[in-house]
UniProtKB/TrEMBL annotation:
Gene Ontology CC: mitochondrion
One annotated GO molecular function: oxidoreductase activity
Name by which UniProt lists this protein: Enoyl reductase (ER) domain-containing protein
Superkingdom of origin: Eukaryota
Record InterPro entries: ADH-like_C (IPR013149), ADH-like_N (IPR013154), ER (IPR020843), GroES-like_sf (IPR011032), NAD(P)-bd_dom_sf (IPR036291), Quin_OxRdtase/zeta-crystal_CS (IPR002364), Zn-ADH-like_protein (IPR051397)
Lineage per the UniProt record: Eukaryota, Fungi, Dikarya, Basidiomycota, Agaricomycotina
Length: 337
C-alpha cells in the first residue's frame, strides 16, 4: 500500500512516498475506507516537522482529511449505517494513504451533489467557518463581514457562508489575483488588498465609516483589522497562517466595546459534542440549496507529488482547498459519459 510515512521529523519535501506499507486492519467499531481524495493543510507541513500541537509517535502517516468509499472487504460493526461502496468523508490521522481504518461514528455520508475531491476538503474548513461565524460571532443578515485570506480554504468557505446568510462580505487578501478569486468564485461583494498600506481606510469607506461587524481572521491580522471594526464588533481568531501570534492591546477592546472571540473546533468533540451534527446539517442544507459549494484548487495533486502541493500552500500559491487524488471514481466517471 502507498502511504506518506514520516519516519523522522522533516519537511515534507525531504520525505519520500512509501510503496510497501502494510494495509491497516479494522479494530473495534472501525471500518476500512478506500481513500479516493485527501485534503492538504498547512498544518501537515508543521506536523511532519514536529511543530504542530498534534504530535503522533514516530513513525506515522501524514494527513488528516479524506473522502472515499467503504472498502468491499470492510467489517461492518454493529450499529454502523454504512455498507461497502458507500461514499463517506471525515478526518483522522493518516489520510495520505490508499486505505485507512477509522471509527465508523467519526464518518459522515458524502452528499450526492458533492464530488469525492470536493469532499476531501470539507471536514476542517466548513464547520470551522460556520461555527465561527454563526455560533461564536452571531452572524445576522445585513452584517458587514471582513474575511482575511479570503481565497484560502477556510476563507472562501467563510465568504460563501456569510453571503448565503445575508451578510455583506469584504474579502481581504495579499494580492489582487486572490481577491479576484474570492469575488468570482466565493461571491464576495468587495475586495481589499492588505499588502497595501492604509487598506483599512478602504474598508471604512465601503461601510460608510461604520466599520465591519465581524472580522474573520485566519492569518494573524487582528490588530491591523481592529482599525476598521465597528462598535460592538466581534473579531474571530481562527488561526495564525502568517506565523506570528499577536498580542492585542486590551484598551482597544474596552474603548471600541468589542469582543475578541476564539474558535477551537477540535475541542467541540470533547466539550460540546451535540453541536457538531447540528453544524453539519446546516452546512448540508446550504449545499442542497445551491447557496454554497466546496471550492477546490484547479490543480489536483497526487501522492507522488504531494510535497509539491504542501509547498504550494506554504508559499500561498493555492486558493480554495488543495487536494490529493489517490484514485479515480470510475463509477461516477462512467455515469457522466
Amino acid at each position: 500500500m502507498r502511504a506518506f510515512v514520516v519516519r523522522e521529523l522533516a519537511h515534507p519535501s525531504g520525505i519520500n512516498l512509501s510503496h510497501d506499507v502494510p494495509e491497516p486492519t479494522a479494530g473495534k467499531d472501525q471500518v476500512l475506507v478506500d481513500v479516493y481524495s485527501a485534503g492538504l493543510n498547512f498544518f501537515d507541513t508543521l506536523q511532519s516537522q514536529g511543530k504542530h500541537q498534534s504530535k503522533p509517535p514516530l513513525p506515522f502517516i501524514l494527513g488528516s482529511e479524506f473522502a472515499g468509499k467503504i472498502a468491499q472487504n470492510s467489517p461492518i460493526p454493529e450499529g454502523c449505517p454504512y455498507r461497502p461502496g458507500n461514499r463517506v468523508f471525515g478526518g483522522t490521522q493518516g489520510s495520505f494513504a490508499d486505505r485507512i481504518a477509522v471509527n465508523w461514528n467519526e464518518l459522515l455520508p458524502l452528499p450526492d451533489n458533492v464530488t469525492l475531491e470536493e469532499g476531501a476538503g470539507l471536514f476542517v474548513t466548513w464547520p470551522t467557518s460556520y461555527q465561527a461565524l454563526v455560533g461564536r460571532a452571531g452572524l445576522k443578515s445585513g452584517d458587514w463581514v471582513l474575511v482575511t485570506a479570503a481565497a484560502g480554504g477556510v476563507g472562501i468557505a467563510a465568504v460563501q457562508i456569510a453571503k448565503a446568510l445575508g451578510a455583506r462580505v469584504i474579502a481581504a487578501a495579499g494580492s489582487d489575483s486572490k481577491l479576484e478569486i474570492a469575488k468570482r468564485v466565493g461571491g464576495a461583494d468587495y475586495g481589499v488588498n492588505y499588502s497595501k498600506p492604509g487598506w483599512q481606510k478602504a474598508v471604512l469607506e465601503l461601510t460608510n465609516k461604520k466599520g465591519v461587524d465581524i472580522i474573520y481572521d485566519a492569518v494573524g491580522l487582528i490588530n491591523d483589522s481592529l482599525k476598521c471594526i465597528a462598535w460592538n464588533g466581534r473579531a474571530l481568531v481562527i488561526g495564525f497562517a502568517g506565523g506570528a501570534i499577536e498580542k492585542i492591546p486590551s484598551n482597544i477592546i474596552l474603548l471600541k466595546n468589542i469582543s475578541i472571540v476564539g474558535l477551537h473546533l477540535g475541542a467541540y468533540k470533547r466539550n460540546e459534542p451535540e453541536c457538531i451534527p447540528l453544524v453539519w446539517q446546516k452546512i448540508f442544507d446550504l449545499f442542497t440549496s445551491g447557496k454554497a459549494r466546496p471550492v477546490t484548487y484547479d490543480r489536483i495533486f497526487t501522492l507522488e507529488n504531494l510535497s509539491e502541493g504542501l509547498g504550494a500552500i506554504e508559499r500561498r500559491e493555492t486558493w480554495g482547498k488543495a487536494v490529493v487524488r489517490l484514485r479515480k471514481d470510475e463509477v461516477n466517471e462512467k455515469a457522466k459519459l
